[in-house]
Amino acid sequence: MANADKRVVKKAGVDRQISVKRIYEKALRADGTRVLVDRLWPRGVNKDRAALHAWLRDLAPSDALRQWFHAHPEAWLAFRKRYLKELAGPQSADELGELYRLAGKQKKLTLLFASKNERYNNAVVLKDLLEGMRKPPTGTGPGAVRAARERHAKRMPS
């Protein structure tokens, strides 16, 4: 993907640009805040070259879902639906909240992934979620993230 997929999002009168890009592509100043959204560190990439601002590994699909999609790449819509359902769970709440915070704070945000499939991957789903392009399942917005964090804190022993 020589030219990263870019779309400008307007929120509260501020233009925000959210892009997706392979981590193997050269880091550019135009990328803005660079966030890796894969569970595993990409092969052959050193941390300096990656120029990351954040690595949100808990936002990546579960190993089982990632392996299933790798075996069934034609099932994009099913993968997307299952991944959004995983994101609605409490295990993703903190990092999903961090992603919303970064997207709200930064003018340019680039979601980085290692997959060879540049059109269909978890970064594309997260970009759609941030842009509000497609309605996410109940429980994945910033308010739901906060509520899940509070529920989880109440369950913790004192």
Task: Report on this structure.
By secondary structure, the chain is α/β, with parallel strands linked by helices. The chain contains six helices and five strands. It has helices at residues 47-50, 63-71, 76-87, 93-105, 122-131, 142-155, and strands at 5-11, 14-22, 33-36, 54-55, 108-113. The protein has a five-stranded mixed beta sheet with strand order 1-2-5-3-4, covered by helices on one side. Helix 4 runs antiparallel to helix 6 (142-155). The chain starts with a strand and ends with a helix. Residues 6-13 have low confidence and may be disordered.
Write the layout of secondary structure elements.
Blueprint: E1 5-11, E2 14-22, E3 33-36, H1 47-50, E4 54-55, H2 63-71, H3 76-87, H4 93-105, E5 108-113, H5 122-131, H6 142-155
Helix pairs in contact: 4-6
Briefly summarize what is shown.
The protein is an alpha/beta fold and 158 residues long. The chain has helices at 47-50, 63-71, 76-87, 93-105, 122-131, 142-155; strands at 5-11, 14-22, 33-36, 54-55, 108-113. The longest helix is centred in the C-terminal third of the chain and has 14 residues, at 142-155.
Features:
158 residues; alpha/beta; five-stranded mixed beta sheet; globular
